[in-house]
Design goal:
Layout (H helix, E strand, L loop, with lengths): L2 E8 L7 E8 L6 E8 L6 E7 L4 E3 L7 E6 L4 E6 L8 E9 L10 E4 L3 E3 L4
Antiparallel strand pairs: 1-2, 2-7, 3-4, 3-8, 4-5, 6-7, 8-9, 8-10
Length: 123
């Protein structure tokens, strides 16, 4: 069973940066897509970025140019670098794995979810 574990290291003041990681353990598919979602209070869970097994990345307009995805295959770990953070980025962040053609705009495409990590950005 695939397990995803999110963690982050870094400052949480507005304008600063955070690096979140998503470590996978258990069985993984050779062709996959891992997406990041966030859930803010009073709002629906929303996907905003995804990276496929071949390194293909996609970003929502809300984070494009500020957030960057990367992966370390040897460590089975994916990274979300978040720059120029804004208070509006405050949310619970999740990573989730789906099949190669999964679309980050459709949470139902994704089967395995991490437990989430809280990101709070203060002004």
């Amino acid at each position: 069973q695939l397990q995803l574990l999110e963690s982050w290291v870094g400052s949480v003041h507005a304008g600063r940066s955070l690096l979140c990681s998503c470590a996978a353990s258990g069985t993984t598919n050779d062709r996959y897509c891992v997406a990041w979602f966030r859930h803010a209070p009073g709002k629906e869970r929303q996907g905003f970025a995804a990276i496929a097994s071949d390194g293909r990345t996609r970003y929502a307009d809300s984070v494009k140019g500020r957030f960057t995805l990367s992966k370390d295959n040897a460590k089975d770990t994916l990274y979300l670098q978040m720059n120029s953070l804004e208070p509006e980025d405050t949310a619970m962040y999740y990573c989730s794995e789906g099949h190669y053609y999964s679309d980050y705009r459709r949470p139902s495409d994704f089967n395995y979810w991490g437990q989430g990590t809280q990101v709070t950005v203060s002004s």
